[in-house]
């Protein structure tokens, strides 16, 4: 290999120190490309990569994603070529059986028993709104996981027309609401005008929050099967609830599950064209980078391998735009600052690994 490289690339240095410097330089370039985006003369390369992947919305919040050089993309090219040949040869295609190119498992029927239990376990509406308000005040300051307006609209539906939540996808919605309530109980004492004294064991905030969490997590099989944007948000919230309890265990598992579900929906890739509305594209970006930031922090702090390469990501960073008055610019500015700090942390982590190897 050394002889081949020296023959093909004149003047290349292959000693250990030179290779280490080359690796560090590539890492810095990759970090700059991710934070700042590609330079104008590099834009064509990014477009070329994007042409090879598929981002196909198949529902309001569900997307089929297939990466470059995948079996799916190869098969679809063959399918398209055959269809073009049939059209050009004037072969009638009206009587052919149409098979959807998109497929996902749907064998698991939603457990109405678990859904009914989950809905019945919700607190009275005033308490629900209080816990949701606490959640957004103390938890969403750096991690824009769910939209405040969306959450309060679903709370309204929960207490006025809960039958709508039994539709497919409702499992993720009720899991999000219950986990928001559960996380709200972790910070509810901060809203008390007086110091919280000893509480009765049966009515402690910890036990009430655990009840919300347990009823939400029972819906996890359906949440994974649905594999929508709400599924990603639900698993992220599961992880956020578990962080104070077991960051390196349950928190790590749930947040990595959210990363996998997000990649299943292609949220790590740039949204091109008119496949998504500007609001949906921004929501996808915010949720993805929240998951990425949490995953990086937990993995590095607890000595776990990173789950996705930075070079595989080209999703846009969140935009500092006011979508409603309740979520001002500082809400997203903090998230972007937190992400940039994570980039520095990751670079230090990679440098330490290179130093250890050599």
TrEMBL record:
<dbReference type="Pfam" id="PF04082">
    <property type="entry name" value="Fungal_trans"/>
</dbReference>
<dbReference type="GO" id="GO:0003700">
    <property type="term" value="F:DNA-binding transcription factor activity"/>
</dbReference>
<feature type="domain" description="Xylanolytic transcriptional activator regulatory">
    <location>
        <begin position="251"/>
        <end position="325"/>
    </location>
</feature>
<dbReference type="GO" id="GO:0006351">
    <property type="term" value="P:DNA-templated transcription"/>
</dbReference>
<dbReference type="GO" id="GO:0008270">
    <property type="term" value="F:zinc ion binding"/>
</dbReference>
<keyword id="KW-0804">Transcription</keyword>
<dbReference type="InterPro" id="IPR050987">
    <property type="entry name" value="AtrR-like"/>
</dbReference>
<dbReference type="InterPro" id="IPR007219">
    <property type="entry name" value="XnlR_reg_dom"/>
</dbReference>
<keyword id="KW-0805">Transcription regulation</keyword>
<keyword id="KW-0539">Nucleus</keyword>
<protein>
    <submittedName>
        <fullName>Fungal-specific transcription factor</fullName>
    </submittedName>
</protein>
<dbReference type="GO" id="GO:0003677">
    <property type="term" value="F:DNA binding"/>
</dbReference>
